[in-house]
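*** Backbone structure tokens ***
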Amino acid sequence: MATVYLAHDPRFGRDVALKVINQALRDDQSLRGRFEREARTVATLEHPAIVPVYDFGEDDEQLYLVMRYMPGGSLADRIQSRPFTLPDLLPVFRRVGSALDHAHRQGVIHRDLKPGNILFDQYNNAFLSDFGIVKLTQETADLTGSGVIGTPAYMSPEQIHGEKQLDGRSDIYMLGIILFESLTGRKPFPAETPVKQLMAHVLEPVPNILTLNPDLPPDCDSVIQRALAKDREARFSSAQELTAALTITLTGKLPIMVNEDKGETDATATIDIPAVIAPSAAIPLPAAPHLVSPPPPRTESPTQVGTAALTFEKPAPELPTPSAKKNKLWLAGGFLLVFLLLLAGGAAILNSLPDEEPPPAQPAINVTVAATGTPTVGEPLAAVVNTLPADTATPTVTAVPPTPYPTPAILEIGRSVQDTPLTAVRFGGGERAVVLIGGLHAGFAPGSVQLAEELIAYFHDHLDEIPAEVSLFIIANANPDSAAVPGQLPGRLNGNGVDLNRNWDCRWLADPPWAGTPQMGMGGAAPFSEPEVQALADFIRQQAAQAVVFWQGRAVLGLASPGACGDDSLVSRPLAQVYGVAADYRIADFESLVNQEVNGDATNWLDAQGIPAISVLLTDYRVSDFERNLPAVLSVMAWVAGERP
């Protein structure tokens, strides 16, 4: 967003931090708005632990922000040097936590807390910085249109889901990540790619911090688990509550707050917790919400005697977590676990959802169940299998394995020119593949990446909307090396300067035209010369895709254009019809519409291979138009799952 310089203010004879908005972004009105918002927001948050702003202005259309220079570096620098001890970290958390609570009382949430945003002055005092992407909780407008803003390694589950109504508990979650990292030197959810990082926050249980740092007080893990609860209702309600719990964990005493706004306490004046009130009553610290196997599924007739088919229903018994809310992702894993237990005969309970394909449906398994009752959670399977003599009459139940419930998985399908992983997120386990691709021109049409990310978040929460016959693959960013220049040619090019939609083997040219002028080398050295294009082509063919959608931009009314390498589309026109009608987009062949031949186009090549493929031009470069594209995606999946026209 900006470049920060160490500068000198000659009027006051002091060093300052000068934040200047990046030249490439200065014309982006949404980013300008965020930059200007930072100055005004911090000005309203006067607090001794928030980095002060000295000046703000514009010079030759260049926005700048003058802030206090913090010579002590950042918390990120100190964590890299060595992890903190809890006694050394507590003063930092008290001070930063007081600044955070002050912001929350003013109706402001930070949304991008991380160690790099906690700075130190020359006296080793901690300060909270970078309120440039805060969201005022009173506002309903969103500066980006998506609501998903932040750093993947620290984002809360509700941010990842794209929830519009965030509150201070999202900051508490990020503070919990910082706490974990500060005490161990590593993040609780390490991952190789941003998409995997986001998935981990939603799917993976929080690791026990004591396994990484056994020198911590035993109750420290309970504090971490509560701060990082998937459900925000189960988290601490304030940073002060979090630091109080840490203090009790360390000392068994709670210092008396003498200046709440400054986060200052009197170490000599403490409340002896054991003598007054139990810590668990003052600051409830529930056990870690680990994923465990749910109780066995209900049969359609629990009292039936004889042979019956077990029915695996989607509404499962409540998981033993602090929240009463159901998370469909946990439920999917729970049913899979029960099935695996039946197959394996006492297999150990898993601690995380699998990335692998769900197991294929197996023949019916005859399981003889003890007449004395239903097995309990955690009870070995051998304990509930009837071992009575053969001549003893016992009821038997035939367990029919369920159709695998859609389970998210992340697949690395290749690498970009600059060795950035290209990833696809898979939902569902059906035999018919639907592939959705954003970001073929990521810098040119960032709205296409945003749409893909919003759909990934949506299907995390709506797995049941994916037909059983379908596997849905979403590639959020097929060109991660492109420059962020919406609507301009450089935003279409990869690290080799090649337009990835001019590198497929259909009327390919090395120097294809752009705006009527041939562009040297824009088509690549040869068809499929670019690793991104080769990876996409291989992946689509490996999946035997029955529908492929590329989101691009832009057409003011939206456009669904079928692939056609010859004079007319071979197999793609019905797909364009299904998508265009559902999205209320215009349906037409792009080349015929503009009377211009497109060289090396992806959808044209796929159509020639007998794979239905369309280009969807969104209504603007920066717009995802999620509300109109979601029904179109659902319609495409229904079309693929049913009878083909």
Observations:
- Residues 2-68 form a domain with the Phosphorylase Kinase; domain 1 fold (CATH 3.30.200.20).
